[in-house]
């Protein structure tokens, strides 16, 4: 009698498993994701970590070695990274060239030059111009007074959207829908920043800033520093950035605060008017905020 061999079927993943895996693999290899991941390498270089080895970059990247080396080579070929000793890399000279191009071409930077200089001369305080950059505020231009406080906001530095006069002057003029989304995501930070422990209080505080046309803060980001800032708008009336002054609070004459506020408001109006003339392409609503 011949025994029949029993065929044992190994359980195979159903078709949805392969569909999901294929979809994930394709997403990881998409041009958009690859470019974002490659450019993200540049964010690793900071004053605390200005030099990175190839191995450390690849490990931080979380990709295969071949992909990591390809990204590093691509950035080095265009001058965004430059090799130094012992297989390490630092940020490259192409970034310096791009910064010069921005200074020559950025309508906000160029629109603010004269007004910022006049503001600093008239108040005797250091001045800054900031722009909205996703969920933060970026310093675009600064003009330091001789008695400038240390660690003042300077070009290329980012600050939270909820602290400091320069940030709040921008935050207060975002759209209602944007503010609602921001509050839902960051209610805890908003509360600790003194902007309100609930949505109603948050909205009321921002309404006060909008009505005043200027924001004032003391020690919110840098201890002992007072800041006064007003919003800058594009041609369509959408918030673009802010202009303001900062000073050591212990040396600031608070009897002159109203005069400083008026000077800052006037500077913001001049920059807004100038942006409307030369700011081609700046009539865009703030996107990806929060």
UniProtKB/TrEMBL annotation:
<feature type="compositionally biased region" description="Basic and acidic residues">
    <location>
        <begin position="1"/>
        <end position="25"/>
    </location>
</feature>
<dbReference type="InterPro" id="IPR014757">
    <property type="entry name" value="Tscrpt_reg_IclR_C"/>
</dbReference>
<dbReference type="InterPro" id="IPR050707">
    <property type="entry name" value="HTH_MetabolicPath_Reg"/>
</dbReference>
<dbReference type="InterPro" id="IPR005471">
    <property type="entry name" value="Tscrpt_reg_IclR_N"/>
</dbReference>
<dbReference type="InterPro" id="IPR036388">
    <property type="entry name" value="WH-like_DNA-bd_sf"/>
</dbReference>
<dbReference type="Pfam" id="PF01614">
    <property type="entry name" value="IclR_C"/>
</dbReference>
<dbReference type="Pfam" id="PF09339">
    <property type="entry name" value="HTH_IclR"/>
</dbReference>
<feature type="domain" description="HTH iclR-type">
    <location>
        <begin position="32"/>
        <end position="93"/>
    </location>
</feature>
<keyword id="KW-0238">DNA-binding</keyword>
<feature type="domain" description="IclR-ED">
    <location>
        <begin position="94"/>
        <end position="277"/>
    </location>
</feature>
<dbReference type="GO" id="GO:0045892">
    <property type="term" value="P:negative regulation of DNA-templated transcription"/>
</dbReference>
<dbReference type="GO" id="GO:0003677">
    <property type="term" value="F:DNA binding"/>
</dbReference>
<keyword id="KW-0804">Transcription</keyword>
<dbReference type="InterPro" id="IPR029016">
    <property type="entry name" value="GAF-like_dom_sf"/>
</dbReference>
<protein>
    <submittedName>
        <fullName>IclR family transcriptional regulator</fullName>
    </submittedName>
</protein>
<dbReference type="InterPro" id="IPR036390">
    <property type="entry name" value="WH_DNA-bd_sf"/>
</dbReference>
<dbReference type="GO" id="GO:0003700">
    <property type="term" value="F:DNA-binding transcription factor activity"/>
</dbReference>
<keyword id="KW-0805">Transcription regulation</keyword>
<feature type="region of interest" description="Disordered">
    <location>
        <begin position="1"/>
        <end position="31"/>
    </location>
</feature>
């Amino acid at each position: 009698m011949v025994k029949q061999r029993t065929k044992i079927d190994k359980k195979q993943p159903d078709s949805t498993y392969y569909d999901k895996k294929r979809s994930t693999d394709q997403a990881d290899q998409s041009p958009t994701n690859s470019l974002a991941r490659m450019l993200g390498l540049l964010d690793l270089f900071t004053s605390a970590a200005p030099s990175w080895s190839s191995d450390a970059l690849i490990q931080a990247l979380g990709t295969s070695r071949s992909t990591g080396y390809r990204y590093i080579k691509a950035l080095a070929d265009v001058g965004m990274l430059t090799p130094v000793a012992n297989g390490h890399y630092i940020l490259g000279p192409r970034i310096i060239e791009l910064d010069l191009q921005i200074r020559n071409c950025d309508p906000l930077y160029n629109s603010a030059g004269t007004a910022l200089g006049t503001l600093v001369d008239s108040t005797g305080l250091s001045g800054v111009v900031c722009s909205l950059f996703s969920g933060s505020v970026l310093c675009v231009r600064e003009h330091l007074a001789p008695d400038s406080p240390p660690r003042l906001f300077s070009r290329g530095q980012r600050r939270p959207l909820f602290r400091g006069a320069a940030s709040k002057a921008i935050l207060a003029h975002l759209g209602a829908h944007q503010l609602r989304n921001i509050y839902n995501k960051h209610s805890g930070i908003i509360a600790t920043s003194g902007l309100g422990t609930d949505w109603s209080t948050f909205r009321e505080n921002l309404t006060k800033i909008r009505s005043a046309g200027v924001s004032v803060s003391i020690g919110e980001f840098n201890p002992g520093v007072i800041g006064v800032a007003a919003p800058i708008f594009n041609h369509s009336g959408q918030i673009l950035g802010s202009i303001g002054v900062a000073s050591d609070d212990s040396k600031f004459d608070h009897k002159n605060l109203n005069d400083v506020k008026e000077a800052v408001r006037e500077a913001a109006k001049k920059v807004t008017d100038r942006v409307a003339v030369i700011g081609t392409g700046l009539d865009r609503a703030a996107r990806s905020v929060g």
